[in-house]
Write the structure tokens for this entry.
Amino acid sequence: MIYVTITLAVILFLFWKVALVVPMREACVKERLGKYAGILEPGLHILVPFFDRVAYRHEIREQVLDIPAQTCITRDNIQINVDGLVYLKVVDAQKASYGIENYRRASINLAQTTMRSEVGKLTLAQSFSERDKLNETIVQEIDKASDPWGIKVLRYELKNITPSPHVIHTLEQAMEAERQRRAEVTRATAHKEATIAASEGSRQQAINLSEGQKQQRINHAKGRAQEISLLANASAESIRMVGEAIAVPGGDRALQMRIVE
């Protein structure tokens, strides 16, 4: 019974050393006598005892690495603290094992140096407004440098851009001054519009008064003209009637008598 137990234990030990099940999310690097011997894909694999061993295990799913906050200087000499996230994936387990000592730490350091370099090319306002462009540039630079490491940088995201307390205080003062300036401009514009409206009212009032006076004079002139016309017509009519009366026999005597009277 003891021999059977020992035999089963030895068999289980050998099976545990020989058989290897690689999960779907990993890629294992096999070495034979210390030399690279291939990549073990997900599934069951049989190793040669005492010759083969799994030297490295790599996560082949997409990984996210937190980039610690660091101090950067913008192009307009403003100090800001920037942190972010880098998303990457192992595409070549052999290069990830032998091309770099620790691709995670190397990716973080490379992301930090690249971020400092790219932020230094932008002003503070541009670093806020052009975050997407900055993310794309950092991804391109990191992906280019990390190609020998067997990893693929998928994207980079800036989490926070935080100016120093002194810069924040200065920006708040600038914003307050800008708000006051806008308020002054608004008040000045309102006063200007009110003045214009008042002058337009006075002008329209003067125009209306002058139009009324003009119309009054026109009406008076028309009445005077009509009066003169009527008087002239009456005079002409009387003269005509007198002439006709003179032309009648005995008219001249009547005229003389009228003159005498």
In short: DSSP finds seven helices and eight strands in the chain.
